[in-house]
Design brief:
Elements (H helix, E strand, L loop, with lengths): L3 E7 L2 E9 L4 E3 L2 E2 H4 L3 H13 L6 E8 L3 H19 L4 H6 L30
Parallel strand pairs: 3-5
Antiparallel strand pairs: 1-2, 2-5, 3-4
């Protein structure tokens, strides 16, 4: 099997995923998963597609991450891994789709407007 290359995005985080056969090692920006994401919740988010399809120990995954915060980065990796698993095994698409792992979350930060302190916030109104 050759290397499968996919991309996952969430907010401003972009994850480039490279999947090949192996023993289940995940490397993010030249660091192990446990070192990059010390929180167990974020490790769980990254591992979700692999645990749902029961392929956690079959593939080695290398990730190049840019931008965003830690939560957005973890969810970008999840989307990229799910897309890679569908590219490798198309029959796993239904299982991943039913668990909502193939949908890109389109929510982005709204821009700040000029003449006010935030995106929606206005300065306090003064009648007199």
């Amino acid at each position: 099997m050759e290397v499968v290359n996919t991309i996952g995005r969430r907010k401003s985080a972009v994850a480039r995923i490279y999947v090949k056969e192996g023993k289940g090692k995940i490397v993010i920006n030249d660091r192990a998963l446990e070192n990059y994401f010390p929180l167990v919740q974020l490790q769980y988010i990254v591992m979700q597609p692999l645990t749902v399809t029961e392929t956690a120990d079959k593939y080695d995954i290398t990730v190049n991450l840019q931008g965003g915060g830690i939560k957005g980065q973890a969810e970008a990796i999840r989307l990229g891994i799910a897309r890679a698993l569908v590219a490798i095994k198309p029959e796993s698409k239904g299982l991943l789709k039913s668990n909502k792992m193939l949908t890109r979350d389109p929510r982005e930060v709204e821009r700040k407007k000029p003449g006010q302190p935030g995106a929606r916030r206005r300065f306090q109104f003064s009648k007199r």
